Amino acid sequence: MSKILKLGFSPCPNDTFIFHALASGAINIEPYKLSITLADVEELNSLARTGQMDICKVSAHAAAHIMNDYILLRAGGAMGRGVGPLLLTREPCTIEALNGKRVAIPGIHTTANLLFSLMCREAGIHVETVEMVFDEIMPAIASGKVEAGVVIHEGRFTFSGMGLTKLADLGKWWEDYSGLPIPLGSIAIKRSLGSEVASLINSAIRRSLTLSQVDPSQSWSYIKNHAQEMDENVINEHINTFVTDYSMDVGKEGEDAVSRLLREAAQMDSLNLPDGPFFIKE
Q: Is 61 a known active-site residue?
């Protein structure tokens, strides 16, 4: 009888592109079967923090809170250069002008919020953050409900159509700050499952990603059915932006980037990280 593993990832095109073959059953991981949950990034972070997922896509920020119970896979994540969240306003202004203002964030434990918090710390300002589901943020900025907002996912490609202004690219800010690519999200797996299961899932994710790369048409219907933004050009741009070489393997530079971000998160949130390792071995 097959054993059930609970897997959570987002409905965003980069995740559905990577995980389609696994979700469809095209990749065999016997003796295991997957029970799949698709959810918003902050909901996934919460599911992992409460131990409800065996394998889960989490924000790199949220990973700092679960490292005692989870370890990160080398495949399936979102990382790169020029791919970070955007800080948007209605009118052009400086970061200092946001001091004391209301700023929407897509979740307290998202990497987007960590980057924004680090930027505010370096600028010496304090803001009132307002948590929202990511697709509510741009309308809130446009209506004046908040003075600014940190936007992730498709918002990177569609904000100008709502008349919004980019104050900062937080990914570029991180690259200048750290000299490293920005780790947006990683795939975490419970340490209690053991190294063999972790290696099996890591390999399966790579095979799933490879199948989508070889024949994107196979995953297209699945991707489009779950996408927030239905414009096909935006969906393709999303995949091309957030599915990178790091999605196949984080590599040494990726490990360094995640380790740096985890330490920044631990300092910001007063956490004690385990000694390591943070990633499974090959």
A: no
